Amino acid sequence: MKIQASDVAALARGCAVLGTGGGGDVRTGALAARRAIQEYGEVPLVRLADLPGDALVVPLSGIGAPTVSHEMIHGEDEPRRIAEEIERIFGRPPSAVMSSEIGGANGVAPVAWAAQLGLPLLDADGMGRAFPEVQMVSMYVAGLPADLVIMSDVAGNVVTIRPVDGLWSERLARAVCVAAGSHALMADYVLTADGARGAVIEGTVTRALAVGRATDGAADPLGALRGELGAYELITGKLADVERRTAGGFVRGTATVEGTGADRGRVLTLELQNENLVAMAGGRILAMVPDLITVVDTETAAAIQTESLRYGQRVTALAWPCDPLWRTPKGLETAGPRAFGYDLDYVPVEELAAHG
Predict the structure, then answer these.
(1) pTM flag (> 0.85)
(2) How many C-beta neighbours within 10 Å does residue 235 have?
């Protein structure tokens, strides 16, 4: 299939939901995607099986604080500069673009980057959601070497990093990102199609489209979305407090939801680091990373990103299981609650819900 301009709205809605509050504002990514399709043409959506084994796949994503991305919008030069650097290093041009994370703008904007580069988009990503740190990708969990990161910023700088491992890739890329104003375009884990097999999460662009379309024309958008995701409803209520700060290239903070209706008297607290990481109520954990936690508008079921949370919003918090890869020992070591500094043993959201 080809991604057309008419597909972008559904893709953006789905990516916003899968973004678990992060990944950047889908509105800017959707505008860029529609404009690029109109200028350069529709974008083929391909599977790994469609690519030659030696085809170079380029995972692209914006790195930095989502609050900054509203003002520092990627242009056409950044993906082009990264593609040129890849060709210089590998001696051949890239064959396909892949989203590093399907969540948020980082799931939508690759449509624009693929169109600008005249390349297909791979129906896959490295997370199945959004995560805030560079090493928190399926390729790292699969054991692929994190030995190349290429970054470009709005000022025209191109930085090539040769880290010794995934943790160093995060430290060094984050330092470059902060120097660039807490926002840059990044390619990491440039890999061949053969190397990507078993190391990426396939079908996630198609999945985002299905999630985005689930509420189209629905009499009960929230129910339709919950059904499509297989999600648990944590609370419905009013956003009562938001504490948020931008530091070290991240948005960090907490959000508090006071229950209404059937949830009156309950209070939910969300811990944030770009994404929603942990949900707690009444001294009990309701959901935690790497499972997905998303805050949506109660009436429309549209996802609300962490930087857009505002006092008084009527919201519902949903949670559902992550890709099985993240529940492996390496997956939990990489993106489980302890990876974010929480002294918590991971418990799957469906087990937490069963004891609710």
Answers:
(1) yes
(2) 22
